[in-house]
Amino acid sequence: MSIVRALTTAVGVGGLLAGVLVDPALAQIKGIADAAIAEDGVLTSRVDSPVAPGVNYTSFERLDPKGWQRGDILDTDLDKHGVTVDLVNNGGKVSGGQPLSQQLARKGAIAGVNGDFFDINDTTAPLGVGVEQSGKLLNAPAAGHNDTAVIGKDGLGQIAQLFLQGTATDGPTKLELTNLNSPAVNSGGIGLYTPEWGDAVRTRTVDGLPTVREVILRDGVVVSSATTPATTPLAANEQALIGREAGADALAGFAVGDKVELQYGLRPDAADVAVGISGNYQLAKDGKVPDDVPDADLAPRTAVGFDADGGRMILLTVDGRATGSRGLSLKEMGQLMISLGADDALNLDGGGSSTMLARTPGKAAPDVVNDPSDGGERQIPNGLGLLPVKGSGKLKAFRVESVGTSEEGPDADISRSSRVLTGLSRVLTATGYDETYAPAAGTPSWYAGSNVSVDQHGVVTGRRAGDVVVTAARGPANGRFPMTVLGTPTRLAPSTRQVSLADSTAKGFFEVDGYDADGFSTWIEPRDVKLSYDPAAVKIVATRNGFEVNALTDDAVSTVITAKVGALSTQLSVTAGLASTVVDKLDDLTKWAANAVPVGAATASRSAAEGHDGGPAIALDYSLTGSTATRAAYLSQTPQQTLPGQPQKLGAWIYGDGKGAWLRANAYDAAGGTAQTLNLAAAVDWTGWKYVEADIPPGLTYPLRFWRIYVVETSPTRQYSGRIIIDDLTVRSAPPVTMDPPAKVIDPMVVTDGTVTGNGRWRFAVMSDAQFTSDDPNSDYVKQARRTIREALAQKPDFLVINGDFVDRAFGPDIALAKQIIDEEVAGKVPVHYVPGNHETYGPGDLSEWKKVFGAATSTFDHKGTRFILRDSSLGSLRAGGFDQILDLRKQLDDAATNKTIKNVVVMAHHPIDDPSPTQNSQLGDRKEAAMIVQWLADFRSSTGKGAAYMAAHAGTFAATRTDGVLLPLTGNSGKSPAAAPDAGGFTGWALVGIDPHATVAPAGQRNWSAPERSWFQVELRPHVDSLELAAPTSLRRGQSATASATVIQEDRRVPVAFPVSADWWGSTLLHIGPAKTAPFWAVASYDPATGQLTALHPGTAQLGVTVNGVSKSTTLRVDW
Questions:
Q1: Residue 356 domain-assigned?
Q2: Could you give the count of Cα atoms lying within 13 Å of 455 in the half-sphere of its Cβ?
Q3: What would the pLDDT profile of 670-694 be if each residue is shown by its tens digit?
């Protein structure tokens, strides 16, 4: 998913968050400080919502040096408001489990978390102590797992150790109890099992033990004594004593008919306990993390804690085992609990058990608000539930939200839903609640400012761009929803270009997004979208914020969906059922060749081998040694094979060697450019045969041509040799479809007619991706690097930025050659700022050699009112380059926001936010980090009105887009062959940027919905020009029009002179540059660069010319009657 889209799904701390809670009733939140949640990291989002009086919910996302964490907090005031804390479980049963949502529902709880650790693979009984609000002790050990979160009879909380104390007395014989309803009887002990134990077979509590005895009591009298526990549940008037080892021997003295007196409970020092639930580690004690708390494994976590006087309870879950949340160690969990305000804290069960539910105001039941790592709620034995006082049921206020997010919980993101495009609608709903936030009935009337219209069903229609508040009210009760009306939509895009369904049981989903001229976007209500498709192939149903799709047959089918909104349209495909085709059996060695890089270090050879089905196959023997640079061994097909149809997946049978190499494939699409890279396996970590396949991304131009399959190793320290066998190269395809290509987005920051020179602008030059090595100091790539610098310096920029991958490898001689080229070509004429890219680490595996010559990898400087923040993404993300640079980025933006001398900010790094190619292999690897950067820049420009841009390279293409007013220019290669087709930015060259230091700051009232400061940053994307062609008619009759166009020739590429290529069209005095309707009366002809139309106006002659990167071409036009 591109950040252009993903950005608007995040709630920014400094920007969009301010609008989350606007109703006064909803805003009465005690609030935990941002810094307390962030600790030593950065808080990237938070959402707050009340659950009940005295109970507040917060969801958060933060980033620290180790990665991302997402968490949820329930902050409860136990001193007042009448909130009750109780243990919840499986209907009063200790064994067996239920989802937490069912446990909470049984007691009417409006929030809660999972509880104790338990016997997960057997009885599901908790390991420790469980006490219900009534004071009833359900389960406990006399020793072991005794750390317990306690609510006292005074309603205050603490962490304490609770112990079972009990006896079973038969006349003169008194036996100590070691367990009450525990999943296992302590060694040598005696466990008491009551009807609350539940239905789990009691034999499980002493599985596999040689000496066991169970004594069953009915109405206090022994009715059976056996060496194997019974399998039937206990009746209401029965108890069972189960002993093992010495405990079993002692119970042998209890005879059938004996009267046995049972006494059990917590030790006398726990007489004031009202509720208790156990955990394992005490994470915080007197405001400090105890020394015995481990700091190792990262996992999802749940914890409970109390402040120093016990009047405040903090429940915390942190997600883990996911890309978006790494989890925390126990020590980190303790530190976070202390930061949130806990003086004492206890670790509850984590992993897949970690679950939190919280009620949204106006809802009857709570929702799961965290992301359980099992993918859903786990069957657990118990938890802690929060029970509010009963409300009056009288309407107090409304919670207003979009219908598109109304089914989500209290952490629902409203940022996209709070936007509507001019002329389109947003459907709102209002949910009433009383003074306790419980549901309350009431139908509201709707009101709004003049920017929108709203009917009495809550349908809001954008009328004019701007900010507006929509209000739902009934008498004194009201709720408000702040909205931003964006501009008129200029283009549409589906949330996915392809919905792939396995069969008729599978469901897919897509949204239709709309974009205005400044790159502000939101999803479009299904009611505003008209779809056309084959109804015999798929069924499509509108649902909240998009459309659900399912196939009507298990046969392989494909159809194109066309979505129209007014005069705009976009397309996506739906495919169901993929047919497999073996395109090459790899049974002919003569069609394949083996090679390796670096030459002279890594080696590769091919040979015949036995395939997965006993037939022939091809083995690739390789050695990825001899160098610390990236090594690869290839098996290439000669000639390349055209793949049939429109494949969605490419796979092969691979006999793995377990060495861990990265397995990839290359294929070309029909659009041209470099080969597309497909990832078959992150690591060949298996031995024996295995079928692996890669997704072929939608958006490629068919037909595809297969080139090669290969193993690659990027780590300098992993040196090894191995052998894999490849068999049955296979594609999986659906029936082909034909779609219109997405409309080209032409961003006005790129000058397509004119220059950035003049009008008070100052200029700087940017180049990237020359990618030479010292192996040949006179190579074509070196020549291209030198040529680029010379062309850039000829424009007399204030400085030059080399935005990464100047070299292809970063050994000492490579870096020395880079320094030599810069010194010889620049010769001190202008400052040079060199930002490292990934190739500046290739070889050593880090920037060590580069830093010896070029110094620090990050820097910040101010130049004529613009702050430049240069960041290191050489290892694929900013965090990988050092978390300090993320903290510094935040610091620099905050300072620039208040610094009156700074008019705008440009962040530069090698990796782009989004790779515009279909494969999206060349972009910041951490997609959440990418979204965070753009969100920070969007917040910066919306809060200050100053310009913001993120300029990158790496993707092998020139491009320019914007998101929420943030400019995202992208430079292509200066030396290495481009990755894209020539008409899609696939050319070599460089960029010249012009900055207007006097650009007007955007007015505060316009920043959320427009970017009037857009003209502060203009860029010329300049291709290398070996020669220039101009195609235009030499004669026209008056009133006639024809097309005129130019083409740049560079090597074997023909590059159309059209966006994103910058050019300056010019003419003689009698030629008007611009639309014919704007031509002066004396013009012989006009030429409109935007449309390519040359129009004859009056008899005479005129000259038309074009200049591209300093090379000009012209032609003469004669206009006749």
A1: yes
A2: 6
A3: 887 788 899 999 999 999 999 999 9
Residue partners of 638: CB distance under 8 A and separation at least 6 = 591, 592, 593
111: its two tokens: 């929030």
Q: Which of 457, 486, 515 is where one domain is finished?
A: 486
**Nearest C-alpha neighbor of 360 from the set 394, 314, 305, 406:** 406
* Among 980, 997, 1021, residue at a domain's last position: 1021
Residue 598, preceding peptide bond in cis (omega within 30° of 0): yes
Report the number of distinct structural domains present in the chain: 7
Distance CA 234, CA 222 (A): 13
Q: Is residue 20 part of a domain?
A: no
Structure-block tokens of residue 580: 């497999």
Task: Give the C-alpha separation, 380 to 89, whole Å.
Answer: 8
C-alpha 1047/C-alpha 1043 separation (Å) is: 13
In a domain, 12, yes or no: no
Residue 1017, amino acid: F
Look up the CATH number of the domain holding residue 1087: 2.60.40.1080
Same domain (yes/no): 182, 258:
yes
Largest CA distance in the chain: 130
Counting every residue written for the chain, the total comes to 1121
CATH code (residue 194): 2.60.120
pLDDT for 921-948, tens place per residue?
Answer: 899 999 999 999 999 999 999 999 999 9
Dist CA 866 CA 416 (whole Å): 30
Do both 958 and 989 map to the same domain? yes
Residues 603 and 621 in one domain: yes
Q: Is 57 within a domain?
A: no
Encode pLDDT of 137-183 as tens digits.
Answer: 999 999 999 999 999 999 999 999 999 999 999 999 999 999 999 99
Q: Are residues 433 and 520 in the same domain?
A: no
Write out the two tokens for 397.
Answer: 């206020």
> Are both 588 and 572 inside the same structural domain?
no
Distance, CA of 661 to chain centre: 26
| Mean pLDDT per 10-residue section of the chain, whose length is 1121 residues | 39 32 44 92 95 96 96 95 94 96 97 98 96 94 97 96 98 97 98 98 95 98 97 97 98 98 96 96 98 96 98 98 94 98 98 97 96 95 96 97 76 78 97 98 96 96 96 98 96 93 90 92 97 95 94 89 97 91 96 94 96 97 94 95 93 98 94 87 97 91 94 94 98 89 90 94 98 97 98 98 98 98 97 98 96 98 98 97 97 98 97 91 94 96 94 97 94 95 96 93 80 84 98 97 98 96 98 97 97 97 98 97 90
Distance CA 933, CA 929 (A): 6
Cβ atoms of 477 and 396 closer than 8 Å: yes
CB contact set of 979 (below 8 Å; sequence gap of 6+): 673, 674, 917, 922, 955, 956, 957, 972, 973, 986
Q: Is the domain of 546 the same as that of 445? A: no
> Angle at which helices 883-898 and 927-944 pack, to 10 degrees?
10
Which amino acid type is present at position 579? Answer: A
In 451-567, DSSP assigns E strands to 452-454, 459-462, 466-474, 477-486, 491-494, 498-501, 508-510, 512-515, 521-523, 530-532, 538-543, 546-551, 557-565
Q: Which of 42, 66, 46, 65 is nearest to 56 (CA)?
A: 46
Cα 722–chain centre separation: 35
The Cβ of residue 175 has, within 10 Å, a number of other Cβ atoms equal to 21
DSSP string, 965-1003: TEEEEE---SSSPPSS-GGGT-S-EEEEEEE-TTPPPPP
Query: Which range of residues forms the domain containing residue 654?
Result: 579-734
Q: Indicate whether 520 and 650 sit together in one domain.
A: no
Residues 181, 724: Cα–Cα separation, whole Å: 55
Strands 579-584 and 959-963: unpaired
Peptide bond into 1060 cis (omega under 30): yes
Q: Do 403 and 496 fall within a single domain?
A: no
In three-state secondary structure terms, 102 is helix
